[in-house]
Amino acid sequence: MAYLPYGESWLSGGADGRVFMQPLERTEAQLILKADRVSHVLPHPRHPSMLLITRATMDDQLILLDLRQPNGESTGLTFGFPQSNNLSQYVTPSFHPEGTLVVCGRHDDGFVNVWDIRYAGLTQGPSQSIGMLDKKVLKSAFMWDSPTMVSVGTSNSMAFFDFQLEKGLAIQ
Fold this sequence. Notes:
This is WD40-repeat-containing domain protein. InterPro entries: WD40/YVTN_repeat-like_dom_sf (IPR015943), WD40_repeat_dom_sf (IPR036322). It comes from Dimargaris cristalligena. This protein has 172 residues and is mostly beta strands. It has one domain (2-162): Methylamine Dehydrogenase, Chain H, CATH 2.130.10.10. It contains no helices and 15 strands. The chain has strands at residues 2-4, 9-13, 18-23, 30-34, 38-43, 50-55, 62-66, 75-79, 94-95, 101-105, 111-116, 128-131, 137-142, 148-153, 158-162. The strands form 4 sheets. It has a 4-stranded antiparallel β-sheet, with no helix packed on it. The chain has a 4-stranded antiparallel β-sheet with strand order 5-6-7-8, with no helix packed on it. It has a 4-stranded antiparallel β-sheet with strand order 9-10-11-12, with no helix packed on it. The termini are far apart. The mean pLDDT is 83.
């Protein structure tokens, strides 16, 4: 569940694969996407009409959704990484504060995948995979006031990684 300040709405998704948007001033919710089991719905930090949806699947777990589509049809760009099992509901992706990068830990190993969402080859796999922890990575997120990425895993450990892009450079 997430709050979308633009349009003052709540977003929710669940195991039935449906994602709803519920405006605060209305009683009826609008179905915006039907997908596989939905784990997380995250608003984009810079573009209020963009959402990142996480699905519990073995590949293509992430959907970047644009709510500005004509006729109310929400379409999304699907991307992800191969896993031996469905992605756990406890694994949570995150946006870079500027909104150009998405990070998501893997539960098969201690790696964190990084995608540059400006890159045209987004569906070909992560731009980078960084070994951060010994076991499953549950959450990786960028700190809002610095270029540091923090990862937390099932081994009761935490890792910090300074991640900085040159201005105007996209990860290939």
